[in-house]
């Protein structure tokens, strides 16, 4: 079990408080939630099928039948997700010369998800391989080295740590009406993330891919560790909060600490493993700020180590250059054909 760590992002001034407003035409209060670029990113990738399709696209899959063969996904489901991802501008459709077949190719917005996937992959490699070798090793063709990228400050290039960051409200700070149904839905079947080829990204999303699990972990980074405080901030149903906290303790993200007797009450502290989710979180925040925040990021982050505002950059641990999909090759510990998948071919 990872040891507990009493740390959080430091805030420079009070953050917005939870608000329950009367819904128009309704007799009960409507729940609101923080404006959050990480949540907006997870709205895209927390759907297991959408995530798997994007992952296969990073490995070179472009046609309907190739996606279906790699994932065993029902035709109707695949049609729906490809339509959704095209509407969201993650994919664009391209006609194949001399054929009626169309290909689905990642857009610039879609390719820009790659650093977030790599940040999640590195987390999964560190914590979720059960002592086995990771499914793949990255080779950064820019420098020719095996690469273990990390999430760094865009200003000084140093690896980011939650203890070394302060946040303040950005121009997009505030609250918005919560999406209908989010406060009552059950956790999805996390095993679906692991369909197809082995993937450390999939293992990471089995833990935080559920939206409620993510929001509970996010509140820990904001310093909210106690059940009542988390429930108040999220306006989450008690049975759902209890379930998510239990799952996150069991997975090693939180450690429970007794702070009151008669009745017993606990606070939930991020473990070292939990704190290590900070890198993927701020990588996803960067993507959400860039593509979904309309130039109004909800948070501004300052790196205390260098004293500058920053955004998260996923960089090679050897040459310190940013990681982009076009510059990466892979050494695989599995054969893609065994999973009905296309490449990438493993390099020697």
TrEMBL record:
Coiled coil: none
Record keyword Protease present: no
Biased composition annotated in UniProt, kind: Basic residues: 176-185
Keywords for the protein's UniProt record, in alphabetical order: DNA-binding, Transcription, Transcription regulation
Top-level lineage group: Bacteria
Region called Disordered, residue ranges: 1-27, 167-197
PROSITE patterns on file: HTH_HXLR
One MF term in the entry's GO annotations: DNA binding
HTH hxlR-type domain span: 36-132, 197-296
Protein known as: Transcriptional regulator, HxlR family
UniProt organism field: Bradyrhizobium canariense
């Amino acid at each position: 079990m990872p040891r507990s760590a009493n740390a959080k992002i430091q805030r420079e001034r009070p953050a917005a408080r939870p608000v329950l407003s009367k819904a128009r035409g309704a007799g009960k209060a409507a729940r609101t939630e923080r404006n959050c670029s990480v949540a907006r990113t997870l709205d895209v990738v927390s759907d297991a099928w959408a995530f798997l399709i994007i992952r296969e696209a990073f490995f070179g899959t472009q046609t309907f039948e190739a996606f279906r063969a790699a994932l065993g996904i029902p035709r109707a489901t695949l049609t729906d997700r490809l339509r959704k991802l095209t509407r969201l501008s993650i994919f664009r459709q391209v006609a194949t010369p001399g054929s009626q077949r169309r290909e689905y190719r990642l857009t610039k917005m879609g390719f820009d998800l790659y650093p977030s996937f790599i940040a999640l992959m590195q987390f999964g490699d560190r914590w979720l391989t059960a002592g086995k070798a990771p499914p793949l090793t990255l080779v950064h063709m820019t420098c020719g080295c095996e690469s273990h990228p990390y999430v760094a400050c865009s200003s000084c290039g140093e690896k980011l740590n939650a203890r070394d960051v302060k946040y303040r409200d950005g121009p997009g700070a505030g609250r918005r009406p919560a999406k209908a149904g989010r406060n009552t839905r059950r956790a999805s079947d996390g095993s679906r993330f692991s369909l197809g080829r082995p993937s450390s990204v999939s293992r990471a999303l089995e833990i935080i891919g559920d939206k409620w699990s993510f929001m509970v972990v996010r509140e820990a980074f904001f310093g909210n560790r106690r059940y009542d405080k988390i429930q108040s901030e999220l306006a989450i149903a008690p049975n759902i909060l209890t379930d998510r906290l239990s799952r996150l303790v069991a997975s090693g993200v939180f450690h429970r600490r007794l702070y009151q007797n008669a009745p017993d009450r606990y606070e939930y502290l991020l473990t070292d493993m939990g704190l290590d989710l900070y890198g993927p979180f701020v990588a996803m925040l960067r993507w959400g700020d860039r593509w979904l925040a309309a130039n109004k990021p909800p948070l501004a982050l300052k790196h205390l180590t260098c004293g500058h505002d920053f955004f998260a950059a996923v960089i090679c641990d050897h040459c310190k250059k940013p990681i982009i999909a076009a510059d990466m090759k892979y050494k695989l510990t599995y054969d893609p054909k065994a999973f009905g998948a296309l490449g990438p071919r493993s390099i020697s």
